[in-house]
Amino acid sequence: AKYADEWVSINAGQDGAWLMAVNHVLLKEFHHEQKEPYFLDYTKQFSDAPFLVEVKEADGVWQAGQLLRAGRLARYAEVENGDWKFLMWDAAAQRPKMPLGSVGHRWGKEKGKWNLELKDGIDASVIDPQLSFLEDNDGVVQVRLDDFGAGSALLRGVPVKKITTASGEVVTVTTVYDLLMAQYGVGRGLAGAYPQSYDDDSPYTPAWAEKYTGMGREMLTDSQGSYRFE
After folding, report:
1. C-alpha to C-alpha distance for 62 and 5, rounded to whole angstroms
2. Distance (Å) of CA 168 to CA 61, 72, 74, 94, 163
3. 187-214 pLDDT per residue, tens
4. Distance, CA of 16 to CA of 184 (rounded, Å)
5. CA distance 88 to 70
6. How does DSSP classify residue 120?
């Protein structure tokens, strides 16, 4: 640390709170406001952010469930290890597709398909992952998100789509990315308990991080209240 230009003295054990606030800023500024390709392209190709997740309603409350299994859709009903292969929404085809590289491919009889590739596991057609349903959805639901620091829960709007399974069941899905944006409090114009600014004491803003890290919110922003990416 003695060679650093600046020492950030975070309260012991509160690195996680610091990084949650850092991620809030990055997601807000370089995924939503600026839509920086450097971040978005990497997220599409090398993370689980585009995968589809079921959201289910119970007693009037929506909660995130498990990843939607490829084997539940008619197109992929007969694929090997379909319960361990997952789905992305292809922006070009406007339907779910099953990319190569899921754990189900790792243990398949056919070798050589364990590599992560944005290609459909049946016909090898290219997949253009749609990270978010923000501008193309079948509605918005209020999903319960836990605030473990306060021992409470928040309801935040998440855009969803409806998909019909092979059995005829209609399931409600969103993307890991949309849930991530909700969890980190990046509102994007959606209803719910979203912070209005970095100064709101709401998970996981720079103001929220202060009470855990002992560092002022200005450590996460410059004098104009934002990072600069170069």
Report:
1. 46
2. 23, 10, 9, 19, 9
3. 999 999 999 999 999 999 999 999 999 9
4. 13
5. 9
6. E
Nearest CA-CA partner of 28 in 211, 182, 214: 182
Q: Note the pTM of the prediction, 2 decimals.
A: 0.91
Token digits for 80?
A: 């090997």
Q: For residue 13, count CB atoms less than 10 angstroms from its CB and return exposed for 0-12, middle for 13-18, buried for 19 or more.
A: exposed
Rounded Cα gap, residues 29 and 58, in angstroms? 34
Residues 6+ apart with CB under 8 A from 134: 159, 178, 188, 190
β-sheet with 52-58: strand ranges across? 152-159, 140-147, 61-67, 52-58, 170-175, 161-164
Task: Show the tokens assigned to 37.
Answer: 């390709």
CA distances to 18, 141, 180 from 214, in Å: 10, 35, 25
Q: Closest Cα to residue 53, out of 43, 61, 63? A: 63
Dihedral pair phi/psi, residue 155, rounded to 5°: -110, 120
